[in-house]
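Researcher: Please predict.
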Amino acid sequence: MAITDSLCRSFLDLWWHFDPAAATWAGITAHDGRLGAFDPDSIRQHAAAFRSIAGAVEDLEVEDTADEIDRTALLDHLRVLLFRFEHEHPYQKNPALWIEHLDSAFEGLLARGAGDAELAAAALDRLREVPAFLRTARASLRKPPVLFVETALALLAETPALLDETARRFGADWSREGGDGAGVMTEAKTSLEQLSTALRGLAVDPDPHAAAIGEDEVDRRLHYEHASIHNAAEVWRGALRLAAEVESEVSALAAAIDPARTWRELYEQAREESPVWSQLEAELREALEQNTRLLESRGISAVAPPLELAELSPAARVLEPLACYQPAGLVPAALLVGDPDRAALPWLAARLGIPGLHLQRSRRDALPGLVRRHVTATSTSLGWCLYAQELLPELGFMSEPESRLIERVLFLRDVQLGLVDLGLHTKQLTPDEAVGQLTAQVPGDPAAALADVRRLACRPTSGCAAILGRQELRRLREDFLAARGDAGTLEDFQLEVFGYGGLPVPLIRWGMGLDA
């Protein structure tokens, strides 16, 4: 094992101890019976341990470019994590993070099924920890922003159903082993009610910009998390230009379809309510298979493990109204779908399935190095989603104006999400203004816009990172093909990019020798 990977293993072991829900989803079963400890003392202890690992990574002496790239990626990842703990204090500021962890911890166990005595015992042990976990949450919170409290309450409203499903799945095993599942469940649900009551009476930060991390921290994340040379102001200006360009494209497509109608009118006409789940699942499956055939007909490998399709849970829809990707661990990867427009289904299949995130993630998971398997920049993963969506029309698939109109409006939504992300966290927009901007700029449901704003507030820079990553991937492809000349192919480019896993695109560019 390379020395950087050895330190990455130490980091992962520590991270999975800190976040047992993440360990469960990663297929690490040793922490299945636990919940995280996010009180200030535990945070300080873990931060000290992370700082020690960061120091060891910084002191590494490496000889070749590949090792230096991995060392840089791991060190920057640790720097972002440490700054979050030591300066942003998310577990004191954001009660939604506590509920997200709780929900994820039980969803991870449920995803593995039933019929396993050890899994059932771990579920009961984890359930026993709920009251103490939530008491610690109440004691740790310090004047959270109103938006985070409202988000936590929305998540909390869905948690009892998740616990009920846990009891339904494992209750028979608990009874056979003589465990007091009913009593433990009662205590857990009582603690949920107590937290809900406490949140409603909690002193909150009245500043409408209280959920923002601030422009300096946005710049820091752009530099360390995404290896970008650009600051928030530059990314903002670029996103504004891109929004104008995409809206111009959308208007031109609308004129080609019907010059007498606006693009908004045509888009609303094309929108259809999603069918029943069985039909929606069939249409998504067909789109994934069609995408695979198209890529292979163009000489681009699209082989990937099976991708499950499932509905988004009510709790997940609090933060993600459209769709999301669930990586593989001890369970297969899944595309989780909320309430998309029916016309958007082929583009979601491209974005999150083939040739999108599922293909990229499955290749990443097969890499030998720990850093490239586990250190991921959202600018790379989410940027690849947008790159993949645009790749299909370039290859001649769904390039007619009606389909392209849907695709471009979906992309316009992503550009607006990038602007809202930056606006929220640099204090140019309040949450209410952010929801208003989304609903004004892109057709859609106000409830979905609220979920998007909640997610962007909880995951700073994720919206602008997607746009940034897409831009950098497209520029990287252009430079790669120019450097290769007639010998360069899209398949070559894809294979090269996938070999770096989820590392930031500027580090991939460095590795390709194109860092000019």
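Model: The longest strand covers residues 308-311.
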